[in-house]
């Protein structure tokens, strides 16, 4: 038995503001019905006694610790810049913006 009808696909398409042809509606109805059938099969699997696994990896935190380290000063950062204005990098104007 079909779990999703062509009319339901058309309704979903309208909600998503998709313009679908009649052929696409028929095609998607069949595809969505097949997907729902596979989901039903998965839901029917007996998992009683199976311990859930949220994450099979044992690593908890793989990030380095946050430590304050020295960095460039503003002058050092701008030292090799082609052009700097008022302590900032100067770049060519884009999109006709006024200076």
TrEMBL record:
Protein name: Aspartyl/glutamyl-tRNA(Asn/Gln) amidotransferase subunit C
Tree of life domain: Bacteria
Family named by the database record: Belongs to the GatC family.
Lineage of the species this protein comes from: Bacteria, Bacillati, Actinomycetota, Actinomycetes, Mycobacteriales
Keyword Transcription regulation: no
Catalytic function, reaction form: L-glutamyl-tRNA(Gln) + L-glutamine + ATP + H2O = L-glutaminyl-tRNA(Gln) + L-glutamate + ADP + phosphate + H(+); L-aspartyl-tRNA(Asn) + L-glutamine + ATP + H2O = L-asparaginyl-tRNA(Asn) + L-glutamate + ADP + phosphate + 2 H(+)
NCBIfam families the record matches: gatC
Subunit structure and binding partners: Heterotrimer of A, B and C subunits.
EC number: 6.3.5.-
Function in brief: Allows the formation of correctly charged Asn-tRNA(Asn) or Gln-tRNA(Gln) through the transamidation of misacylated Asp-tRNA(Asn) or Glu-tRNA(Gln) in organisms which lack either or both of asparaginyl-tRNA or glutaminyl-tRNA synthetases. The reaction takes place in the presence of glutamine and ATP through an activated phospho-Asp-tRNA(Asn) or phospho-Glu-tRNA(Gln).
InterPro entries: Asp/Glu-ADT_sf_sub_c, GatC
UniProt KW keywords: ATP-binding, Ligase, Nucleotide-binding, Protein biosynthesis
Residue spans crossing the bilayer: none
